[in-house]
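User: These chains co-purify. Model them together.
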Amino acid sequence: MLKSLALMVRRLAAGDAAPRSASALHRFMGRQSPAPPLIPPTASESPALGALRAAALALPGLMAQSPEALAAPGDIVDLQYGSYKQTPWQLLGGLKSQYNPLQVDNIEANGVLTFSDRWKFGFNYAQDTWSGATPVSSAPYAFGGNNPSAAGASPLVRGNGTILYDKKLTAFRLDPNTANYVPDNRLVQTVASASPEIRNQGNFRLGYEWDEAAVNLGGGVSQEPDYNSAFGSLNGRMDFNQKLTSVNLGLNYANSDINALINPLYSPYVDQSYYAEKGQIDTIPNASGAPGRYLTGNRQDWTSHLSVAQVINKDLLLESGIGFTRSTGYLGNPYKAVDMVFVDTQGTPVPPVDGSTLPPLYAPQVQAVVERRPEERNQGMWDMRFVQFVEPMDASVHGGYRFFIDDWGITAHTFDIDWVQPVESWTVTPRFRYYSQNGANFYQPYFLFQGKAPQGPDGRFNLAGVPLDAYSSDYRLSAYGALSGGITVARPIGKAMAFEAGFEYYAHAGDLRLGGAGQGSWSNFDYYQFNAAVKVDLSAISTAKLSEPEDHAGHHHHSGDHRQQHLGMDAPSGILFNHMLADEGDTMVGVRYAYALQQGGMRHGTGSATDQQIVAQGCGPSLKCTFTPKEMDMGMVMVDLMYAPTDWLTLMLMPQFMSMDMHLRRLDGSPDPGGGGHAAHGANPYHATGGVGDIFMGSLFKLYEMEGHKLHFTLGFTAPTGSVNQRVDGNTEFEHYGMQLGTGTWNIWPSLTYNGYAGDFNWGGQVSTNAPLQNHNDSGFAFGTLFQTTAWGGVQIQDWLSGSVRALYTFQDSISGNYPEPFVPSGPMDTPQSYGGQYLDIGIGLNASVPSGDFEGNHFGIEWLQPAYNDYNGYQLERTGTLWASWALSF
Amino acid sequence: MILKVSGFFLRLSLLVLVSGCTSVQPWERGTLAKPHMALQPFPSQTALREHIYGSRESASGSTASAGGGGCGCY
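Assistant: Joint model of the two components:
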């Protein structure tokens, strides 16, 4: 995330630099964008003249103040989704990892706003969810780390005891066909699953701009279950030489705490003594399973960067910079181990197989160890970029080179080139990038020693006796190259929006290293990455409002609260489909966030449930439950996109993004869970899922309207774009039903909404139902039909602020169908009967709308829904409440 | 001393930059103002990709001019 912040800084800094600010404006507007109104465009104006005018206006001296303030050029809000998928690791011998390849979903919101002309405020919120296969170490194929044992589990870092070495330290593998050993030095990654995790990051930036300088102060936090980071930055820019030259200086500091559960699948077999002696291992006892062992640490990163951007001529811009980063503390990856293999060639060889012609072979001693890196890293870099205009094509070429060096022995080179080609209203950008690095001097695929393993007085392995002070088998520290290519397309939509999408394919290979001779092909992998974004240019909205004809503008220039009321936007934040758009051609962009928390005791019907009841009845008549949830959070981001083709119809598209996590506990008096599944989670059974949910598409129809009363009907559907194939630990078993990202079925979602208002008061009601149109999804089940009815009342507190109270009744059926065999429920969260119920919630909320000025028309809402009455189907975790927050802007 | 020397080099490099280029007048900056002439035409996309490079490569994590969080431990 370092970069996204950096780019935000650049975006902020770019806000008023002559060559760039107009770009910021145009970037979201396309070349036909309306200019600031003081020099109105003329119909006959050429594109070149338009660009010239925009450039001239971008000079602060020419940007006179409008009597009615405008959002400044470069003020934007953007929402972005990204998806990353990796190809499977090559495990040799026809083996396939039991874990799905690594997958990451990312959603992000960015905004840059200008206040009182010279203050800029920027914010960024990002959420990543990942799961899937990741290497824990690497080893010879003969080691058998990925080969399933008789019990079905992979021996991972232990190996399966079938590797032998000759005197020259060539590895020999037991060939199952001949029952004899064959020389085999091939290496493979030892693959385990990444704990599925969600990362949230929020950061802000505050900037002040002078005519030829700017200062930005920023900070933020990033949170993961195992990694918490706080960071701050100070960044300055000075322009010289009539803005042909600008100098940027940035200073940054990050402080991160690591608290990572060592994978219980291999924790007992990995030597942790180095960290234990330093007090970095926390052991959390678990009465009913293996204790959880956490590796803890702290790291600090100081970064500085100095760059100069120079306009060389009217078609060429150059930028060059140097940077230095110093990192100290625990710089390792807590999920990576190394295999140390000791071959005592002075000892007794293993007895040869009858008739074997092989040389004497020795059985090695194998010990896995948590990786260790130096506690200090100094990194330097130099980079240079150019942007050259290609006049015959009206295109531009962007190229860059970066050199990196550190005191871990890594040097790296990065080259990238883009061709940005406008094609009518589209911009099409093919892109290539090449990266190459040397390996760190403490990297080896595995560590092979000739001689006996060092032993302590107790006869056990003694890590302190190994003559190394850093060792890692993380493939990211190896020597390799990477080639990637992709394409980005962008185009403006309507008055003030733009759409952007990108795709990239990336190939990591040892052979691609500059000059060749990198890591072998065993660590090669590819990934592909897709992203899509919607951007709203706030300055264009202000501009469009001012340029509207007087009668139309008059309609829009009711005081802000009136406008909101007329629309029905004063309805509480948690009500979907609460209003239509007022006029033909209107557009609305919004984001709604819901956070639902379930925490505390287990409930059954309207009463509480004991562990004994749940063990006996929670998993059906023939099974006993082992686990029960103790906390579940669900976060849901809904992007509202609305457009009114006529005044009686509004079209709506609402993509949804989900993130969920659940903490489980063993039930008192439950049977032993056996070896797999949750037992593997050690003392802290924790699950997380996240990614794209179901997408809603619908139409809102105006049924009735008179002064003070409005009635509309919404007919919508959700498409099963959310996954219902989320698995625990890669793909071994299905996640709990409620942790799936979508419904897996096409659903119909109609609602009827009434809005009323008089003076300072507003009120309304809505009935809605969300019903599956299919009996079951691909995973064998369907969520129950949902029926909701709600009524609210609101009062204007200030001209920009209103409060609301509402009641919400919910009825939802239990799940029909179930996961196919061999799925075995481990608790009530795996039981279809323990979903749904009847609930009554009371909500209180606030709505604020900006009535005038730079950000007129921005609407914010927040609402808390407190459960007042609950009647749960089956056995469920108590509902704590739901928080709604929303932002919307119509134009 | 170091400050003096670095100050000298800073002034020298600025001098070279300034004198080495023909002046581009404000009314000649139309091309430079085009959206696709921005140093980063697609900043949020670039940021997302850089975040991914940073979790897959050794060198990408240290160019940022701002600190950020995230382990990338997968």
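Helices of chain A lie at 2-14, 18-27, 47-58, 273-277, 538-546, 550-556, 560-567, 611-617.
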